Automatic annotation (TrEMBL), chain A:
Main enzyme class: translocase
Keyword Cytoplasm: no
Record EC number: 7.4.2.9
Native organism taxonomy: Bacteria, Pseudomonadati, Pseudomonadota, Gammaproteobacteria, Chromatiales
Compartment annotation: Cell inner membrane
Any single biological process term in GO: peptide transport
InterPro entries to which the protein is assigned, alphabetical: AAA+_ATPase (IPR003593), ABC_Ni/Peptide_Import (IPR050388), ABC_transporter-like_ATP-bd (IPR003439), ABC_transporter-like_CS (IPR017871), Oligopep_ABC_C (IPR013563), P-loop_NTPase (IPR027417)
Residues annotated as domain ABC transporter: 6-256, 355-606
GO cellular component terms listed in the entry, alphabetical order: plasma membrane
Designated name of the protein: ABC-type dipeptide transporter
Keyword Transport in annotation: yes
From TrEMBL, chain B:
A family per Pfam: BPD_transp_1
Main location: membrane
Places the protein is found: Cell membrane
Organism (species): Thiobaca trueperi
A biological process term (GO) from this entry: peptide transport
Lineage of origin: Bacteria, Pseudomonadati, Pseudomonadota, Gammaproteobacteria, Chromatiales
Protein name: Peptide/nickel transport system permease protein
Residues that span the membrane, as ranges: 6-29, 41-63, 153-180, 201-220, 251-275, 287-308, 328-347, 385-407, 434-457
Amino acid sequence: MTDTLLQVEGLTTELGAAAQPLRVVDGLDLHLQAGETLALLGESGCGKSMTALSLMRLLPPSGRILAGSVRLGGTDLLRLTETEMRAVRGGRLAMIFQEPQTSLNPVLTVGAQIAEAVRVHAGCSRAQVPERVVELLRAVGIPDPAQRAGEYPHQLSGGMKQRVMIAMALAGDPQILIADEPTTALDVTIQAQVLRLLKDLQRDTGLAVLLITHDLGVVAETADRLAVMYAGQIVETATVAGFFARPAHPYSRRLMESLPSADRRSGRLAVIPGRVPPLDRVFQGCRFADRCQSVMPVCREETPGWFEIGAGQGVRCHLWADSLQSVVGSWQSAASGASEGESDRHPAAGNGILLRATDLKVHFPIHRGILRRVVGQVRAVDGVSLDLRAGRTLALVGESGCGKTTAGKGILQLVQPTGGSIRYRDRELIGLGHRRMRTIRKDLQIIFQDPYAAMNPRMLVGDIVGEGLQALGIEPRRAGRMRRVAELLELVGLDPASANRYPHEFSGGQRQRICIARALAVEPRIIICDEPTSALDVSVQAQILNLLKDLQERLGLAYLFISHNISVVAYLAHEVAVMYLGRVVEQGPVDVVLDDPRHPYTRALLSAVPVIDADRRREIIRLEGDMPSPSHPPPGCHFHPRCPVAIDACARSYPGETRLNDARVVHCLRANQE
Amino acid sequence: MPLMPVVLWTDALVFLLIALGLLFGLYAARHEHLRAPWRRVVQSRVGVAMLVVLSAYGMVGLLDTVHVRLKLDTPADSSAAPQYAPEILSLLDLALSGLRERQEKTYSAPFATHLFVKEAIEQPDGSVIRDFPRLEHGGSHLADPATQRGADILFTAMLGMLKGLVFWVLTAFAILWLIARRRGELMEQTWTAIRAGRTPIPWLTALSMLGLLLILGFVAGELAARYHILGTDKVGEDVFFQTLKSIRTGLLIGTLTTLVMLPAAILLGIAAGYFRGWVDDVIQYLYTTLNAIPGVLLIAAAILMLQVYMSNHAEDFTSLVERADLRLLFLCLILGVTSWTGLCRLLRGEALKLREVDYVQAASALGVGHATIIGRHILPNVMHIVLITLVLDFSGLVLAEAVLSYVNIGVDPTMNSWGNMINSARLELARDPVVWWSLTAAFVFMFTLVLAANLFADVVRDAFDPRLRGI
């Protein structure tokens, strides 16, 4: 506690009209020391970002800080005038945002934008500015910084843009950097680069970082201490090591248990029922009481106080009151038992191949000029072969832009494939017209990533779910359809009365359930799940994954699970196919591929995934640069320009498939050499 | 039968429009999710107030849309077929026959008792002097206008106000009784609930607006019986009467044009965006070509062609009113043809965006046909754009009518319209002293209509936007 840089006490922030305010931050205390990373962890709607904006005094117009103090060094930031505060912002306290795409002005070069920050804060002479810009760009690891400074944001990739944002934040030599979900919008390999960069900067400059995130893996890998936020309050603070060894608050425990991973394959994930309560009311008792498993009568009546439980760990929970300490022990042992066990998985329900895609190609022509001649092809999917079996899940893994979503849509004929074949139970799907395809539509369904965009906002839930029944003539009469819809809603765990409501009245998780009900309505045999949980919070993700798993067991569905989240894949999938630039580079049973990856890209991808368990961490294989454009793939093996183990032969031709055993296929020349 | 109903072309289309509106109303009433947004409209203060204003305009327009021919007084010989007057009159004409028939010689200012221009007046003694002559009708009941006029106007206005108040109280009482009966409570309880604003519909606002309109209407009615409250025009016609007659023209141009252009704009716009490919190319070429031709040229050509046709087939058009009506219809048609491209382009862009949206993809994955996807997913989600464009166009079209009248290719010069009034104001404003009342009257009435329509449309749009709900 010698070198406390930032000390926040009793910070309380409200949003909205004075009559019915949302108390988004309520009595928040935290402190941050030089050179330290403090992670602020929580689900969406817990007030993490509002805390950051309160510290910067950048609240939206309807927001106001009611009480508390924010001491940076010796000054209370809340007492500064706006002019003085402007010197602090970017000077001593800098911030980077989640979406690098929208945080940069598209019509100015990145150099000009960094120069602006330099001029405001660094106080160096005009001539020195360009020099300092290049220096900053070099500091954030951008190759060839002098040239990059003259480029526009659209010429840079997502990871590069986030680096530029960091460079801008560093322009004023800040003491504290507030990073609001800095890597959420980025792919894992890029995320690993950015997190490494933050760590390096911290080591070199003694920067303190307040990292706001919802990702426990990121916290485990980068933070020193963490604070868990729930409904506007901090419910637990701890050192990272202490937290992951022994989370104290029931919420933290459930959050950890709801994380999918390979170990939990055989069981169900723990779920936190319900959702974060709306913050527009006065709370009585503990805010988590309604969702807590170990709720006691006292929780609903008395607001829990703050208990220090040693080793820098503190918690806001009645369980830790002295009189109740004994309960904690028993509860902990009981809870750990609950997540284990349950039924073993069914052995694969029949090994018959339902759908086989062979050499599937989806190319998009690039038109140029006044006559719109085709000058090239974007090879989004370039020869993908997959088999889907009943009752099994095949995961399609890869970074954004590798063509996994397009492959899924190509199989469903939502995008017209350019070549290859898709055989569904001895029928060729490619070339079937719109009309003849309709008879097969019933068997192939899709669930989308964004549950907010996947439903027509002007239709009732009942009509949305019943749309397929009507379109395919399964239940032409409305009464019968509504009966079936009620059954389906019950099946996915929703109140059948939801049928008469509009989608916007539901939370993200509930909407995803409705989407699943819509897909199930026509009794499909194959469902393509296009990142169905990536827009959801961890606890809600667990609910959806459990549901998908249950449905597979009960109905024998085949899933094509498209995802970039390796831990979800490890939990749910039976087989996995890794895609890179439109092609599958490695394919095989999930445990084998994830434990013993053979393709260098798979290895790099897996090594970049943040892991909670420190023992299981692998050495991160840093990939240079970004994925090339699918319109001009590199000659030979698509991966060879970034591959750490490439040999000359890799540049010559695309490596054919190497069968390691029955189910295992790798496209790499060096697959057998190690 | 003392009357023979006459249905002009535009009347028929108006009736069609009303029928469509009623059908939609019945359909929406049975579907809760369609009824809910409209309920939100009438729960908004602005919405209710503007609804009252718009219905007042609508009533006048509708009265002016029912056309008849009067039976002529024939000799008592009952065996002869009844003879009807060649003149086609609307119910509004009949209701305001006093105003219509009380013509002066030429200009007179509002509430004037004397003409606006000097004339040679022959005195009883035979001498001739140049002075402002007394009006034939305006204030003719006054013996000494100079002293009596002010008091008379005040008294008449008060009388009108009193009548309006009485009528308003009666109407309000009837409405109150109806509400109380539906809510199953005593009228006092209902009244206190309304006063305290505890009813879902802001009745207080609605009744106040209604009261304002009724009092204004009755005051105007009383005064108009004795004076020309908005003056007279060049040929001595009452300007107040002209303005009221112009309401129908304005409403028709605003609504019929959109009725004409909507099917083309919506169908072609969505088809272009949804189907892409050659359909898109054809439609795009069509509207870029059409857009490249100046709209005024097309309108002029069409109207001139119609004029030639009408003069060549004079025998087909029995009355002036029929000719003017056909010209109005043609104007609506040609305005529709030239104005659909803007909306079409907007809808094409929106459809391009929507066809890639997940819920449309999900629908095609469920095997939903193209027509159903367009009808169920795309059309409802572009309706707010249609609505906004319609309202913006409504005011634009009312103004366009004025511009077209300026170059003499607007509505028939014999037809009452704000455009014609504004057009004639060109010369009136050049006079000295200025004749300002025609322009002012047209402006006030047009402004009220356009403002009410815009405010109402804002409320409707907010009510229909699901994203704004719950805020």
